Amino acid sequence: MTEEAEFIEQLQNQHTIKVPEKNVDFNSTDSFPSLPKSQPKVVNSWKPPKSAVKTTTERLEIPLNMQVRQQLGKQTSASQVCKDLMQKHKTSIEFSTNKNTQSLTFIITGLPENVKLARKQLLNILAVKITETITIPVMVRPFLLGKGGSALKELTSRTLTNIQIPKFDKNNETDEDIQISITGHFEAIQDAKKEIDALVAQRTSNHYQRVTIERSFHPFLAGANKSNVAQLEEEFGIKIHIPPYDAESTDKKADEILLVGERAETLKCEAKLLSLYEEFKQTTKTLNIAIPKKQHRFIIGPKGSGLQEIMQKSGCVVEVPSINNPVDDVLIRGPQGSLSAALALVLERANSVSIGEFELKAILPPTVDAALFVKYLLQKERAFIKNLETEHNSTIQFHLSALSVEVQAKSLADLNSIKDKLGKFIKQTSQSLYLAVCAVPNDLHRFIVGKGGQNIQKLKGKEEWDGRLVDIMVPAEDEDINEIVVIVKKKAPNAASDKEALDFATQIKKYVVDEANASADLTTTVLQIDQKYHGRLIGSGGAALKEMLVPYGNAVIVRFGSAEKNTANSITIKGPQNDVAKVASRINELVGEWKHIEVMASFTETLKVPNGYAKQLVGTGGTGGKDINWISKTVKEQFANKKFKLGSNEKSFEKDLTGTGGLYLSFDVASANNEEIITIKGPKSFVVAAKSILQEKLVVLLDTDEVKFNIFDSISKPAKAILGDDDEMKKQMIKFLIGKEGKALKKILESCNVQAHFSKEEEEDENGLGFVHIHGNKAGVVQAKKAFIETVEEKILNSYSVKLVLPKASMSVIVGRGGSNMAKLSEEHKVRIDFGLELDDDMIECTVEGNQAGCEQVKEILENIGNDIANTTTLNLHVPTFLHKLVIGSGGSVIREFIETLGGSDRVRINFPKPNDGNDPNIIVVTANADLFAEIEEKFNALLVQVVNKGYEKSKFVKFLDLNHTPKQTVAMPKSDANVAFGRSKDGLCDLMRRFSVSIWPSESADTVTYTILGDDEKEMQACKAHISSKIRVTQTVPVPASILDSIRGNQLVLQGLQDVVKKINSGSTSVNLSAGAIKGEKDGHVLVKGEKGKVAEVVKSLTAQLKQLELFKYVSLIAIPEEFGAHIIGRKGITINRIRDESGAHLDLDQHVNKNTKTRNLTIRAANETSLEIALKSVNDILETQRALQESQKAAQVPARVDDDVVIGKTGVPKGVPSGYHGKSKQGNKISSMVTVNEPTFTNVKADTPAKQEWESVPVRNKKNVDAPISKPEPEVNGVIGSNGVHVEKKKKAAAPQANGHVEKPVVPLPKAPEYIQPEPVVDEWQTVNPGKKSVKPTTVEQNPATSAFQGIPVTVSSLSLISTEETASKKKKKKKKAASSAVPSE
User: Fold this and answer.
1) Mind listing the pLDDT tens digit for each residue in 868-906?
2) What are the phi and psi torsion angles at 1036 (to 5°)?
3) Would you call 483 exposed, middle or buried from its count of C-beta atoms within 10 A (0-12, 13-18, 19+)?
4) Is the pLDDT of residue 234 over 50?
5) Which stretches are transmembrane (predicted)?
6) What is the C-alpha to C-alpha distance for residues 984 and 977, in angstroms, rounded to an integer?
7) SS3 of 523, please?
8) Could you give the C-alpha distances from 597 to 594, 663, 807, 849, 916, in angstroms and in order?
């Protein structure tokens, strides 16, 4: 097979073109060296010898997916194309085909301009044409078209593109943008777009900002299906163009993102894009995976939909090598956590289709031309292939270049099935058919085929051929190929029958050609028709001629003569004789009609108008154009409205009134005697209507006025003084007056109902900048002129601009996040800030525009920022870590305020160390201008003093000192003690700094903290050191007396007492714990005390004293008190329990814990002897019996028993302490209405006037000698012991028991009857205190008399009580001792 044939076969199944621009080293002679396309200046490099003719060489590669798709049987000879272009452009062109990638490579050598033209022509012929749509402002449309479309024609000619611009719609003038389509190869489209963008930028106020960002991050910025781009465009109101992503492109421009819109908004968007870019750079990771090349297309999906789907679901970008790149690796890029999900999606899509391939040579007989056979299959057996694809939901592709068949199926079973069926079909068909290529002139092809292929069908049915003619393949009509393929059946499926089949095909070919020649009957006719009618016969773009020849199946060819060959009036018609006669007759008929119309359209009328108005009515005259078309359109409307009617002999013009063409009207303008004469020629009825229309328009024009003036000559003197001769500023004023896309100008014109035109660029030299022409109604013209002048004048008076050069690095500070800083400056000072040209790699030009005062102020601010940035460096501040949080403040408030005092975060940035980042944790890094360092250090030291002393008026701390200061002191302590002494955050160190006027620097090692103390007063430093040393904890043991240890082994109540002593003496900073031996009662039992040295000594002293007291109280008894009787044991304000202590000398401790089953609380009584214990037991039993008796006696009356610590029923039946016959109110105002008797004690219910809780606020302790003494207000804690709240109390001369507070949580609840006693009915106690507003009530704590109690300082917890008989059996006592030992808990 020839090289040309191979090239033709490769042009299949293409869809998108993208021609990479690459310069390669081409091996040439010294006289013809390779030069880059742009021919950059090369310094200090080898130079080739000079040649008489400068030539250049370019390499053009068209990948397989960029090659034009060829239809079967319609071939384009690459060889012939190259030959034609070489001859036309005098260049040398060589081409080759890559066997692996199937891409075409062309090497073009010649003069630079010829090489450029040849390159464009190659792409235009061999590269696929694509269409792109872009949007441009509607106001740019006339400039893109040019006069009579000249600009557009030049553009399309230069770029070899086809550009479609929609027609202007007067009825829809609200559209601001229009869409134009550009068709051509990729390179041509890019060239055209570049020129159009430049034109748009020139003619609009839009700013074009290009942002350079690595192309590999473009997909992340664009988002899936460009969702992020849409969001940014909506947010900033601009257009964002991100170039098509090509990971393998070497073009640096592919990194550029184009932003189009208002300058301020584009700058904001640029900052946002750069911020997102930096964020993606920090989080993006990559993953490579090898996937067979054939499966890449399934990952990509139709038009890249697969890649977009993966990105939408996983947030990752998948990069697939191009079809020309033999690499199998697929790159996945995205966040670390999303790579696995993206990989799963990639593998899923890659394996979604099963692929199989087999070579045709392995199936076809060696005598069969594989390429020819594939063409037969695709043309004649397409139905069979389609059925196979539908049946198995698969796709079959024939590769002509590789002579292979590829099958794609959803499952492996379908793949195997279709391969088997297709292979069998190909094998059987190829063995039974013979394909013969026969040379037949192209002109006879249509006669062989016949109308709708009927001739071939007749040939196939000829009896003498016995059905052996299968088919005839004929090239397409527009192909210049003089061959057909005759397909016949072989007599036998072997090579021996091929000779007979070829002879048979040749016989058929001879018959077919003879028949075609007989049917053709070709003839040629030449008509002489005036050249002026040729254009109408051809029509726009040849439409009229094509329409005329359609009935003849394009069998007739019509060619028009030319003046160069002296055949200007000739029309040559070639084709079948009958068809030629019909076409000639139709042409003569049309020309005759047009001549008749010319006669009918010769009527004329004249209209005289004042000078200058003819142009406004009909322009320069003529038969068409926009100045005339409006008249024809209006005439049609008035005939449709029946304002005019056609004459009886004008019926032939009816079709023109409903068509889109003209009305045969022409207009001619002549001047005479200060007036103009318009001559109207055409059909009479149309002329009359046109004259009437022009007369009506003239009336309107006569009422209009116009004014032409220069805006800048009409403004006030102050405005002129500011403006001067600055043409650039004048242009800016004109742009401002016009506004964005002409909106401002349009608003003025609409309000005044006038029209205005500014002088064009070519007229500016004559009229000057700012020349404007306004015309319309007289009042509107005056109003519009005033508005123009006032608008420009106001803008000038408020316009002042300064230019300055700033470091590029200052842009981010000036602009701020999202443009906030620049917006703030602009708003505060009423100015506009623009960044202009980049002067070099480090500097950029900035322009500030606005009022003069604002511009100068902003200029100073920007210069300060630029100076700060230019001299920015870092300063290390050494500050202990524990002070950092004070410097930062709540939510960063302190440091933010401090930064503001230095000029804000734009001038100063402060970074605190991060934990475990490997840097010194005591160093705070300040980034600022070096000139500010002295001020920053001074103010920062003042800030340290301020935050340390905050809230402490008497602080001595006045100056912070660093480690370089002398003198200094150091002290070390274990890290565990340091945390206890000063807290983990070292807040306690601030107290020492305030107290001793020193600076403290802690430094930690594995187990030790060393404190460096710095100050100016040696005495204060020593005092601080001593204080820190005192915080070092010591340990001391206190032995438990042997008698107590012996008692513990026999009585768990003693252990409970010991635990109570330890628990009560324990404090936050000093820990007191029993040893295991002490708990078990072993000989070495002791108490371990750990804490600060001074406090340990105090605790040991107190503990030793209390252990001695505990040793004296050897007799212990435990009583379970019903919960409702607890208040009676305590008595009002603790008076009852104190009386029992005084009388018995015993210690009573009421457990806070309530037994949920028995509703009782334990009362522990400890005494030094049996007598003391018996007295206390008897007193408790008396109270319980009395209360039980009162409960029984009050069942019927439901009178509550009083919680009265002195109420004890005596032998006379009257409570002790109550005088006989007494009636009155108690302390709380409760009235006693009757006395209690022995036989039938009764109480009446009384109402409390005062809240009962007041009775429990103070429980004074009365001496044993004066029990009945009046109750006085208690004094503070006695003799320097630990109080009930655990706080040390200084020694006082006069002492009394502490106050006791407590409440009964709820009313008394009836209990089941105890075994040893008769349970009384519950009574409501008029002295009970119920606090409904609180869910829990603090218990009342009563201190013992220190003179009699070994448990001084240990509070008694008030609870409800129940009675357990002291006369218990030995077994019960044993059980209780075991239970107490297992659950003994020190009382609080």
Assistant:
1) 787 888 999 999 998 999 999 999 999 999 998 888 887
2) -140, 140
3) middle
4) yes
5) none
6) 10
7) strand
8) 5, 11, 77, 66, 99
How far is the C-alpha of 927 from the C-alpha of 906, rounded, in Å? 10
pLDDT of residue 53: 52
Whose tokens are 């303008």? That residue is 669
* 174 burial via Cβ count (<10 Å: 0-12, 13-18, 19+): exposed
**Per residue in 1173-1220, pLDDT tens?**
899 999 999 988 888 888 888 765 555 544 444 444 444 444 444 444
pLDDT at 1013 over 90: yes
C-alpha–C-alpha distance, residues 752 and 1161, integer Å? 101
What letter represents residue 176's amino acid?
A: E
> What percentage of the chain's residues is helix, strand, coil (to nearest 5)?
45, 20, 35
Partners of 259 in the β-ladder: 209, 240
- In this prediction, residues 205-231 reach a mean pLDDT of 86
Name residues whose C-beta falls within 8 Å of residue 741's C-beta, 6 or more positions apart in sequence. 137, 138, 139, 176, 204, 205
Q: Measured between alpha carbons, how far apart are the two ends of the chain, in Å?
A: 109
Q: Which residue has the tokens 């402002």?
A: 137
Rounded CA separation 1338/1359 (Å)? 10
| Long-range contact pairs involving 664-668 (C-beta distance under 8 Å, separation at least 24) | 664/597, 664/601, 665/601, 665/623, 665/628, 665/631, 665/632, 665/635, 665/690, 666/621, 666/622, 666/623, 667/618, 667/621, 667/622, 667/623, 667/628, 667/631, 668/621
Q: Which residue's entry shows tokens 């030992």? A: 1381
The distance of Cα 1160 from the centroid of its chain, to the nearest Å, equals 67
Torsion of CA 1148, 1149, 1154, 1160, to 10 degrees: -10
Write out pLDDT tens, residues 761-781. 655 556 678 889 998 888 888
Structure tokens at 1139: 């009386």
**How many C-beta neighbours within 10 Å does residue 1385 have?**
12
Q: What is the CA radius of gyration of the chain?
A: 56
How many angstroms separate the CA atoms of 1311 and 1350, rounded?
35
pLDDT score at 1299? 37
Is residue 1216 within 8 A of residue 1261, CB to CB? The reply is no
Return the amino acid letter for 1014: L
Q: What pLDDT does residue 367 have?
A: 79
pTM: 0.34
Q: For residue 288, what are the β-bridge partners? A: 331
CB atoms within 10 A of CB 254: 15
Sheet of strand 1147-1150, all strands in order from the earlier edge strand to the far edge: 1115-1122, 1160-1167, 1147-1150
**Residue 62: pLDDT over 70:** yes
| CA–CA separation, 969 and 1015 (whole Å) | 9
Q: What is the mean pLDDT of residues 1158-1187?
A: 88
| pLDDT computed for residue 740 by the predictor | 83
Residues 6+ positions from 1148 with CB-CB distance below 8 Å: 1129, 1137, 1140, 1141, 1163, 1164, 1165, 1176, 1180, 1356
User: Which of these, 280, 412, 270, lies nearest to 333 by C-alpha position?
Assistant: 280
Rounded to 5°, the CA angle 936-938-943 comes to 90
Alpha-carbon gap, residue 748 to 780, rounded angstroms: 10
Backbone angles phi, psi at 197, to 5 degrees: -60, -40
Tell me: the pLDDT tens digits for 541-573? 888 888 888 888 767 888 898 877 788 889 998
User: How many whole angstroms from its chain centre is CA 267?
Assistant: 18
Poorest-pLDDT segment among 31-45, 164-178, 505-519, 764-778: 31-45
* Closest CA relative to residue 1104, chosen from 1091, 1122, 1086, 1116: 1086
Residue whose token pair is 């006027």: 997
